[in-house]
Amino acid sequence: MKISRKNSAVAFAVGAMVIASATGCAPGSGNASAPVSASHSAVSKDVAAAGKVTLTVWDQNTDGGINAAQKKLNSEFEAKYPNVTINRVSRTFSDLKTTLKLALSSNTPPDVIQANQGYPDMGTFVQAGMLQDVNRYADAYGWNSRYPSALLDLNRFTPDGKTWHTGNLFGVSQTGEMVGVYYNKTLLSKLGLKAPTTLDELQSDMAAAKAAGVQALSFGNAEKTPGIHIFGTIQDATAGKKAVRDLVFNTGGKWTDPSTVSAAKTLADWTAKGYVSSGSSGVSQDAAAAAFGKGQSLFLVQGTWELATLDQALGKQVGFTVLNDPTSGQPATMGGEGLAWAVTGKAKQPDVAAAYIDFITNANASQVLVDTGNLPAVPPADWAPKTGSLEADIAAQWKKLNAADGLTPYLDYTTPTFFDTLTARAQNLIAGQDSPDAFTQALQTDYAAFQAKK
Amino acid sequence: MTTTATRPKTNRASKTPGWRNHREHKSRIQWKGYLYVLPALIVFMAFLGVPLLQTAWYSLWDWNGLSAATWAGVANYAEIFTDPGLLGGFAHVGILIIFYALIPVSLALVLTVLMSRAARMRGASLFRSLLFLPQVVPTVVIASVWVSIYAPNGLLNQVIAVFGVHDPATAWLGTISTALPAVGMIGTWLGIGLCLVLFVSGVSSIPTELYESARLDGAGAVREFFSITLPGLRGHIAVALTLTATTALKSFDIVYVTTRGGPGTATTVPAYEIYNRAFGTNQVGSAAAIAIVLTAFILVITVAISKIQPKEPQE
User: Which of A91, A193, A271, B125 is the most exposed place for a label (fewest CB within 10 A)?
Assistant: First the structure.
């Protein structure tokens, strides 16, 4: 019995290998399409002349405000060009991330997609030849002058997908984002404090709040991403934008450099002092934002995507500020732009796809975005929200930040596995499980492994 | 499954040098039989066999899911046995088996004994349905409910506060030392009803004469349990263990909803790693290797559990 079983198992395994190797050579080798940029015909901006077109678009604009904006823009586009039908597929960010890869490798991929910047997504797609470079459309539609170069660079990759932030343009973005410090104006004035602009001011404000028995900070990290935001905010204000950019864009430096270790020490210190709860990994970021919205804490470190929620909860009681880069004294913080709108390699009518992307990102689109409560990547020139409102704070900080070229990239862009490493280790750091040195060493190990592979 | 079911009985005894003769003898009469199995085999191969082979094939490559892959050989497997993070995932699943399988089965046995001693009561079927309810409710819903129970201001901490412990409120799922047991307790809660329903119906099929004669012989409750109930339930225990242990081994949904493997890596499990590597971090080859190892692991444990199943009388 033993012998025959073993034999059949071996036979099964051998058979498996034979079948597998006969059916497919290397996985993925069938997908690799020829570089698409080689033979482009001249760009035609005349959408009406393209005949009947169905444009399949995959976006992640599912939240209230941005969903309303997208619906409006789509119907405006269809009204302008009756020959075009938009087939919209809308998914949440994480659903899009996990299903887009499969859709792109099919024979009939969507025409227009929203691709997340960085190596894990956009870099992988470019490497596999699944996106078209849009340099020619940038020339035709003037995208290069519409956007600040820092925003355009986030959507650039070399044709082999191996180097980010340089090379061809692979898309443009609709919205802007930045992480900053929300503060409760009522509590602040009750404590006799003013809104912080440096890390030191933020820390002394938190100490004063703690001494007065007011919760300093609301922080929920169950989803793991808030760990990136809070550590990045401290790192920007400790190491400065140049050091952070060098690390994330893989152009120099180490995660174990003293300034980054010092940022980790600060975060660990916040836990020790009770600003950040060691059980924060069991609190969702929505719960933390809700607690801040009820006036239970002085600060909340979060992104501008909380604008609508906090505006509704606290109205004129809430303000938004960005901390300064210690080297320049100018504001610097993590952020950037929404996912890039890109044309897929197999798009049947790339000219129509590009015209659509232009339409949903141009000046008219920015106005629609503002009207629906969103922060456009390039706000309308005459944008003047009500003074004293949260929207006004955010608009002012966004303009200041872009003027100072102060945006730093999201840290998880660094390597394909960095999101996992950083978020898990940040939870460990906050729980006191990892020392600041162990934390930064883990980040450096991930970073070095990726660089060795390149 | 299909193949073992059709394996002729004669093959089982063929340890002797004469096994070759058995085989020839068998092949004369068996071919027609295989024809009847063919449709089932085709379905099995198309929907299980081929994907399994494909996964095994992918596991030998370093592949991001899109671009051409490069040959990795057994590197992906070597990583499983050297990467402390992945080994930790398998260790966590070992602990989850205690919570998902061993505790519910033991508790359900105790409860079964208690319930079987109760006189016939009304609404027994209602209770049975209630106990079975956790199995019917989608696990995503269950996990979401438990997230709020475990929250710092959730039900569990409120109950604890009743006993005078107020501060600090523990974030059960957010604290490294309590996260895995907290996830495990959800599995315990899920499993108890299933085991209990299985055992209660099992007990009812044990002839009551056995209990009566045991009592006449002066056996106590404990003796009764070990001499009659436990042996009588062996088959049911095996089924319950198989079901609950497999649930523990492939647990994904509860971890995904409650902790996403966190805090840190305190609750990572292989099934979550497979998903995360295949769809999150572009490591399809590595994900496939973990999948193969997990499958083998599940098979081994299932076979081990099936050993406690009572032998059929004819063997």
Answer: B125
ipTM of the complex: 0.77
Burial string for B121-159 (b: 16+ CB within 10 Å, else e) reads: eeeeeeeeeebeebeeeebeebbeebbebbbbebebbee
pLDDT confidence of residue B130: 83
Give CA–CA dist A158/A169, Å, rounded.
9
Residue A331, beta-bridge partner list: A324
Q: Does A287 touch chain B (CB under 8 A)?
A: yes
Contact: B281, A416; criterion CB under 8 Å: yes
Tell if the CB–CB gap between B68 and A28 is shorter than 8 Å: yes
Within this chain, do residues A126 and A87 fall inside the same structural domain, yes or no?
yes
User: Chain A partners of B19 at a C-beta cutoff of 8 Å?
Assistant: 3-4
A364 Cα to chain B: minimum distance (Å): 35
Q: What is the pLDDT of residue B222?
A: 85
With beta carbons under 8 A apart, name residues in chain B contacting A3.
Answer: 19
CA B254 to mean position of chain CA atoms = 14
Name the domain count of chain A. Answer: 2
| Interface contacts (A, B; CB < 8 Å) | 152
* Whole-angstrom distance, CA of residue A241 vs CA of residue A253: 12
Q: Are residues A123 and A200 in the same domain?
A: no
Q: Is residue A430 within 8 Å of A280, Cβ to Cβ?
A: yes
Of the candidates B10, B34, B9, B12, the one whose C-alpha atom is nearest the C-alpha of residue B22 is B10
Closest by alpha carbon to B188, among B126, B267, B247, B113?
B247
pLDDT tens per residue across span B66-118 = 888 899 989 999 999 998 889 999 999 999 999 999 999 999 999 888 877 76
Q: Which residues of A touch B9 (CB under 8 A)?
A: none
Residues present in chain B in total: 315
Max mean pLDDT range (A69-78, B62-71, B227-236): A69-78
Contact list, B157 vs chain A (CB under 8 Å): none
Whether A312 and A347 map to the same domain: the answer is no
Report yes or no: A40 and A136 within 8 Å, Cβ to Cβ.
Answer: yes
* Distance, CA of A157 to CA of A117 (rounded, Å): 10
Query: Where do the DSSP E strands lie in A186-250?
Result: 215-218
Instruction: Give the CATH superfamily of B78-306.
Output: MetI-like (1.10.3720.10)
Q: Decide if A427 and B283 are in contact by the 8 Å CB cutoff.
A: no
Pair A154, A264 in one domain: no
Q: Which residues of B touch A130 (CB under 8 A)?
A: 66
Interface test with A, best of B67, B178, B259, B275 (most A CBs within 10 A): B67
For chain A, positions 16-45, list CB contacts with chain B under 8 A.
Answer: 16-17, 19-21, 24, 26-29, 31-32
Cβ separation A282–B151 shorter than 8 A? yes
Q: Residues 6 or more apart from B174 whose CB is under 8 A from it? A: A221, A222, A279, A280, A281, A282, A283, B152, B262, B263
pLDDT tens column, A242-265: 999 999 988 899 999 999 999 999
Which CATH number characterizes residue A294's domain?
Answer: 3.40.190.10
Looking up tokens 């470079």, which residue turns up? A133
Which of A10-14, A73-77, A439-443, B180-184 is predicted with the least confidence, judged by mean pLDDT? A10-14
As a whole number of angstroms, the distance between CA A266 and CA A203 comes to 10
Q: How many CB atoms lie within 10 A of CB B209?
A: 8
> Which candidate, B293, B285, B291, places its Cα nearest to that of B76?
B285
Q: Does A89 touch chain B (CB under 8 A)?
A: no
Same-domain pairing of A318 and A349: no
Same domain assignment for residues A182 and A155: no
